[in-house]
Fold this protein.
Amino acid sequence: DLLVVGSANADLVIGVERRPGAGETVLGTDLAVHPGGKGANQAVAAARLGARTALLARVGDDDYGRLLLDSQRAAGVDTVGVLVGGAPTGVALITVDPSGDNSIVVSPGANGRLVPGDVRAAASLFHASRVVSTQLEVPLETVVEVVRSLAPDSRFVLNPSPPRPLPQEVLAACDPLIVNEHEAKVILGGSCVGDRPEDWARILLAKGPRSVVVTLGAEGALVASGAEVSRVPSVKVDAVDTTGAGDAFTAALAWRLGTGESLADAAAYAARVGAAAVTRAGAQASYPTAAEVEAL
Ligand code: ADP
């Protein structure tokens, strides 16, 4: 089984002609509200593929929290680990301009109240999970507690987003650490790392993770473990909306690793899932079933 520990947000989206400056008001389109947050997205993506998936997260006792719980249940996610209360549900206020660029303000809300004690109280979920997948939209001390709570034979997958420097204890547990170009640069501390993603993968691997995956958007991905760095072929599709593609990729990879697949094979499958996700609008709404991945 797959356990996702992470954030759940309501994405509040308004289209604008241009963004307001300080003290200014502009009119936008009707409000659209979508379930989001990296943890919630990953759990839905995995469950839609057919993975037995549980989510450990925290939402507020409010309508957005109920929206998030509903979307998890509709996808078939086990929500026994979704805690309610302590702060309002996390919210992302998103404006989208005509060129498709986003500006986003995130209020972590209840995500910031997912504390190490919540992780310790979920010991039975950890014991039932072969793979545990986490991101950084919850407190770092909670992620540290996740690493300490892993069952002896279970695997830890981390997408460090939003990126920040990681304690050695967390880095050393990653198998793999999954980063895009921006995340790679932050984790490497802005140090000069060469132009080639192969170089970033090697330098990241030398920092302690058991394996590394670098995602490269339309170019596919790289996997690195031991002394080897190999390319994961990209899948050619007409991209409509890349929102949440990275979360779908990570979820698919984590699930396939849990079924015993090699890192290279799991990443190749995940690249197909990521590609399928960019062919439709939205994050969770764009996630494919296993049959849709096969048909790609
Ligand atoms: P993030 O959203 O974290 O920046 P990426 O944009 O690299 O992540 O996307 C994750 C994965 O999804 C990529 O490694 C790739 O396999 C797939 N993907 C993303 N964009 C495209 C695209 N335009 N065409 C095909 N595959 C894509």
Summary: The domain at 2-295 is CATH 3.40.1190.20 (UDP-N-acetylmuramoyl-L-alanine:D-glutamate ligase). The chain has a mean pLDDT of 95. The chain has one domain: 2-295.
